[in-house]
Amino acid sequence: MEKTFSGMCGLKNLVSSRNVAVALLVLTGLRALLLSGMAPWVGDDIEYRFMAEDGSSDLSGPAVTGLRDVAVSQWYHYFNINGRTVAHTLVQIINPLMGQTFFAVANGLMYVLFVLTLLRQVDLEGGGWRKRPGLTALACGLTLLTFNTSFTPTCQVGYVWMFTLVFWWLSCYFRADSLSYGRLWLLALAGLVAGWGQEALNIGVCGALLLHVMRRRSLPSGFRWLAAAFCLGTLLICLSPGALARAGRTSVGLPESAAVFLRFSRAFLLLVVYVVWLTLCRRVAWRELYLRNRFYVEALLILVGFNFLIGISAPARQLFGIEALSIVLLLRLWNCRGGGFCERTVTLALVLAAAGMVAVSQFRLTARTRICYDNIIRESRTAEDGSVVYSCFEPDNRLWPGEHFARTIERLIENETGKTLTVLPAPEEETGCQR
What are phi and psi of 396, to 5 degrees? Predict the structure, then answer.
């Protein structure tokens, strides 16, 4: 009888811990995989099938046909468009050469890795994420709530993939005191690549790294070399002639920046509410919260200040770094100050319910845009040269979802078929749209 009871307890623990965590991770990855397979590649994702050319501020060259074309394109891309060479090299390999199925599978796996690297920023005790399904559920839910952008290579590789690389590197950095000399050099090289990924996160990480090594003068010199390598990578983004030229053409006022910030911040506002609740209701001192999470708090504050300095404009993907750091801080605070069982259960239920609603909305919108895109492509392939192809997007007849996307679809059709077509919104009286 005792053995039977012990076996039932063991089975219950297995179901309530590792299997739940695995299931949540699988669902997070599966959602990314399905959306990535459904989302039509338009706009920048069509443009990155073509090469950048000398003196041109867009990708107006011939189609990419091999890795040599990618290398040449990225050379001109750095000097004329922007400096995110690591991310855009991957995009220019995936879009013209690998295809959507490859990307969908890779992006699904990357979301799983992203959640795991988020959890690596938390000091887990007693076996890691497999024994902490609640924390894993919170990480998955917050990931689903944020990073509201297209599930296409230009957006996903540029943000989620690069953030995953940075958080993996940070987890190695904080454990670098046990690494051999040779592995330190490899980690420094990885830091250069990670730093060269996405400035939306890396500027804040650079500032926090510099404060970390300046504050702890007794740190081994290897940490300074690692921080220097990461900061050099980020500097390569910021000093790109293309990026500097684009920055000089933008100007956003403080009121508009504040309005956009409040509109597009989700994890950050949740973090503010949670910190206020901890300090007022749980009577946790601000100083304690800061000292326990100093590196991430400093990185977050630097990013908030930097974004308001340069101006924030919709669709505000520049805030994704702030959102990622806010998720890390929410997980760290939850891990230490999450409250009792009832509090945790109610909080998780609310977060997962909101995440579920966001996911349903994403699937509906993506399915509608896919139908519209497929109709345009099908009609374009059978239409005569010089024809007008109408775009019909429920619930109203309008061009989906804008002028730029339509022009890139025209370019794709011309490259594939040699036809010159025009894509326009369906007129109100048009009844031939397939819905």
Answer: -125, 155
Dihedral angle, C-alpha 196, 197, 199, 203, nearest 10 °: -60
Rg (CA), the chain: 24
Q: Compute φ and ψ for 121, nearest 5 degrees.
A: -80, -5
Q: State the residue for tokens 């304690």.
A: 288
Is there a contact between 160 and 128 (Cβ–Cβ < 8 Å)?
Answer: no
The residue behind tokens 């997980």 is 331
If one compares 337 and 35, the residue with the highest pLDDT of the two is 35
Residues 6+ apart with CB under 8 A from 68: none
Q: Give pTM, 2 decimals.
A: 0.91
Q: How many CB atoms lie within 10 A of CB 305?
A: 12
pLDDT in tens, 88-146: 999 999 999 999 999 999 999 999 999 999 999 986 544 566 667 888 989 999 999 99
